[in-house]
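Researcher: Last one for today. Full complex below.
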Amino acid sequence: MIQFLLLFSRQGKLRLQKWYTAYPDKVKKKIIRELIATILSRKQKMSSFLEWKDSKIVYKRYASLYFCACIEQEDNELITLEVIHRYVELLDKYFGSVCELDIIFNFEKAYFMWDEFVIGGEIQETSKKNVLKAISDQDMIQEEETPQGFFEDHGLGRNGRKWYNNATIGNILKMVNAVYFF
Amino acid sequence: MTPPVKGDGMRGLSVFISDIRNCKSREAEIKRINKELANIRTKFKGDKTLDGYQKKKYVCKLLFIFLLGHDIDFGHKEAVNLLVSNKYTEKQIGYLFISVILNHESDLMRLIIQNIKNDLSSRNPIFITLALQCISNIGNREMADAFAHDIPKLLVSGDTLDSVKQSAALCLLKLMRTAPDIMPTGEWTTRIIHLLNDQHLGVVTAASSLIDILVKRNPEEYKACVSLAVSRLSRIVTSTYTDFQDYTYYFVPAPWLSVKILRLLQNYPPPEDPSIKSRLNECLDTILQKAQEALKSKKLQHSNAKNAVLFEAINLIIHIDSEANLLVKACNQLGNFLSHKDTNLRYLALESMCLLATSEFSHEAVKKHQETVINALKTERDISVRQRAVDLLYAMCDRTNSEQIVKEMLAYLETADYHIREEMVLKVAILAEKYAVDYTWYVDIMLNLIRIAGDYVSEEVWYRVIQIVVNRTDVQGYAAKTVFEALQAPACHENMVKVGGYILGEFGNLIAGDPRSSPLVQFELLHSKYHLCSPQTRCLLLSTYVKFINLFSEIKPQIQHVLKQENNLRSSDVEIQQRSVEYLQLSMIADADVLATVLEEMPSFAERESSILSSILQKKKPPVDTLGLKEDKIEKSTHNAQNGQSGLEAKVAQVQSVASVQPIDLIGLNSTPPSTKMHTPVKSDQDDLLDIFGGPAPPPTQSAQPAPDSNNLDSLFSDTFGMSTQIASPVAEMAPFSPILSVQDNHMQFIFNNMDSLFENEALRIFVTSEFKQNLARLSLGFLNKTNFVFQNLSVQAVGSNELVRVVPRPLETNAISSQSELAQVLNVECVNDFSECPQVLVQFSCNGAQSRFELNLPIFLNKFFDPVQMDSQTFFTRWKNLSNPGQEQQKIFKANFPIDKDRNSQTLINFGWSSLSGIDPNPENFCGAGIIHTSTQQYGCLYRLEPNRQAQMYRLTIRSNKESISKRLVELLDNQF
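Model: Here's the assembly. Have a good evening.
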């Protein structure tokens, strides 16, 4: 079981957290601090796995973002790496070349996506198609529920572009394809 | 192509996020956030009703602020309000807020559960999914109670959409973790198992996670899943990657499902049915075969997914541990990975090989890779990989390769990372001891160890060296010679001085014939280090000196001179001062015979299990402090478990080494009450020692008796000194662990007591501390693992459905207990109504492959929920008379078990929980009192009268309460307690 998932930037800023084990808030903050510090201090060629207390940490860096999952002793590290990767792929497909800013500005979407993919710390649906279908169904409903002309009223084009400046942030998936050893 | 805007354009939210990002400083950010919080607060409080969109937007902002690391203490109500909305997007944000922010014990929980109920019964599957996701995110006890009934139905119903089934399966799994008692059995079993045959692979994947936990709870019930799992696995393994469409991941068919099934099968022994067994072996063989084939893609994802399945298959092969052929193949495959360029693979291969090294079938095959592993130790750049290499070398070490492995580990120690040095020192020490044939080799290794990594040599380690040298006459001369040489180094570690001092004090005479190590030279060499040492070491050296007086009378004047020196005789350190004074006196007044007796050579140490072995196993212990246990007592017992017992033998050694310089003890007057002065050093350890030797905690009646301190002390001494006659064998063997299937707990002892050992045998101790407050209680079961193995998968579940007492285990942060350490399971208990039967819990854990499973009576009795009541005589008798309906009074006459003692009886009654009132009964010999029992349903007033009859040595106990069952139960509990 995945006990928790953390997304944080190279600057050590937490971008997303998802907990499947109930800890008091204070403990959570301590864990987050500890892990971010540990992982950021590791060099790039080091293994993606860490022993941590009674659990295992599996992490991977995509461009400016670190994805870090805590799993139990009996869990499989490699398949967890691929859980992370599949999540990145899902985000990428959905946002179209996902970058850190997408996750900052649409954090709720990132949560919804994760919830369609993993429930209670266990993988629910490994098919990319099915997860994306579920999310696009959500978007359909959203569109229906949003009053007509709403976006224009608020100064956002319907077929609008990402209005925040995206240029400086490395494209995550570019990294994905670059990081292999064969 | 420009990507579309995601989210539904909560413009205000985006602006806010941008503002935050534009803040130049932390202060500016906090200012902006506070402004926003104030704004939202006003909006939420304002008269104008907010529409759903606005509410959603503000809740979302709060969520964002929370994610930035700020605490959010309002808005919960508004978030819950969003759940009522019939708009999906508003509901969704409401649920998200609840899942991310809400505390498990919120006042709003009832409301939330109601809303979830509504959504679960919705006809719209997307609402059902939202509800299920929320349950699996929070999944507390209340939810388990509310939904345990509905979710299994959803799971197996033919009408349910596949995606909903998937969510339902994992939702149920989450609830099972919180509340193991909701386990579906009976007719559900077959239907749930058959989900493994479902056509939809997503359903199968989710179901296999659920089945895994069900199997862990009740392997027998779910046994039928094995054959289905094997055939499912076989279909995946023999398929081609095109067969599964979207469930193929980078050319690997259904890797997640494969891993899950391989895991699931590790819950069972190898299948008994020969056809299933051979089918499973074929699968495993095919997976190993495929690992040899060329990669179908150069993408890392392909090889990761493929190897994930491979490693899990190897885990299963190791678990089965009977197919030599597969084990050796697995080992060869891992051998290839040892020199792979992917660090992750090297790491995992080293880790898996550690397990293979422990199997008799593959141990030799692992040894073939020894050179590669040693090389990894030298060249790996990642410390976590080097650590795995150390572990593997340790695991693959045996009599044939121990010399080389120990040599390499010693060499690595010189450059090893600081934080693994201590563990490495222990490992080297253990291997050296375990495989020593020639003890001169052992002595060399250990002295080298101290030389190289003296700072990391713990006390246990050097005590052990001394024990072994003392116990083996063949090596004593060599040891004396070697330490003498080692001490000649200009800078030598203090631990070396300690070992050197001790050994020369005992065996210096064996090398005194050589003029290069004559008595005077030995003494001067040691004394040249004296001033650089800590007081503790100086004390030890002083003892060595006094032993020299006995061994070499010719240097007595020089030693007396040292003892007389100001800085010893008048040292500010009491211990140094005391030793100097006493040794000096001893040397002056005692004649040679007395000296020879007093300062005789140490007898052999009683052989106990090596404490360093347990400390290495303890290294990986999980911290228990995060459980938030405030009770001092628990902390104390944990502390003892960690410090005291791990060093059990060490402590003994310490006491013995102290004893060697305490003449009175050695002469054998151990029944003499020890003078505090002589025993200062022993005293400091006394608490721990009492704990260690005292075994189980004292019986409950002890509170009323004087504690038998002196007895314990006697037994402590006779234990410490009496064992010396036993023949020692240097290599400690691990005692095998036999699973515990039932226990004789002593829960009845807790009637008057809230803290005691509930159960203890040679492997496990369960120590209970409990607190009671009105109708609620909190118990902490401290599980102390006394073995040298790790207890895994500890689970404590309430048994049956005791509707009168509800027991809810708090989720454990970890479910493994390392050797010699303790883990506390906290149970929350609610007394719903009066009860007679003690609630039970089912305790399960596995150790060394054996599954322990037993029921434990919790020491929870009706009287624990008492509050004493004070009242005057008139009130008492008025109430007494009011309770005169049939059944309300229960009476019992019984023989006195103890001499009739007024104070003791009064104390017993008070300990029972109610008051002991004086001046109420006309007969001053009698006892009266009252108490109120708190339950969630009702409170019950209870009165009693206890009349002793000294002539007959009998008692008559009368209890009245407003419920017959209560009076009866209280009489039962007090019967024979006086």
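Helices of chain A lie at 25-40, 77-95, 100-105, 107-117, 128-145, 150-153, 172-178. The beta strands of chain A are 2-9, 14-19, 49-52, 55-62, 65-71, 118-119, 122-123.
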